[in-house]
Amino acid sequence: MLNLKGEQVYLRALEPSDLDFLYKLENDTSVWEVSGTLKPYSKKVLQLYLDNAHRDIYEVKQLRLCISNHQDDCIGLIDLFDFDPKHRRAGIGIVIIEPEDRNKGVGAEALSLLCEYAFSTLDLHQLYANILEDNEASIHLFKKIGFEKIGIKKQWIRTSEGFKNEIMYQKINSDES
């Protein structure tokens, strides 16, 4: 299997011990705007999610991995979602929970590791990301990894400030023959 370890971080499956981290992240209202969350999650609901996190991507159409530093601290999550094996594509999303862990290259490394896994192991043809137009950090990150802007969904996301445009980015597997 492909090595999901980089110089700063590695990607791993969710573990039962990640419950408190997941609870903190999923109930952080600052990320609700991009995650589509409308209400808090209980630890019971999140425990049920963790109990089923082992299920295969071909069955559940998604994969969520922890981004861990080499001290084994979970610092974020990275997801493949809307997995479509017929058309060989998936959406990709990432969150680094603590601001002090951002802008240090860990997001870029995690994103690169998951892209390589998606293209090499899952044999995907393309990945896409949906990013709010005012999320400059994410736009910079995805462009840095080779994602290209392919369109704008106008007034797509409703926020407390009104509707915002969402930009769609795409990366096509350049290693295909």
UniProtKB/TrEMBL annotation:
Superkingdom of origin: Bacteria
PROSITE patterns referenced in this protein's UniProt entry, alphabetically: GNAT (PS51186)
Alphabetical list of Pfam families matching this protein: Acetyltransf_3
GO MF, one example: acyltransferase activity, transferring groups other than amino-acyl groups
Xref: Gene3D superfamilies: 3.40.630.30
Domain N-acetyltransferase intervals: 9-173
Designated name of the protein: GCN5-related N-acetyltransferase
Record organism: Allomuricauda ruestringensis (strain DSM 13258 / CIP 107369 / LMG 19739 / B1) (Muricauda ruestringensis)
Phylogenetic placement of the source organism: Bacteria, Pseudomonadati, Bacteroidota, Flavobacteriia, Flavobacteriales
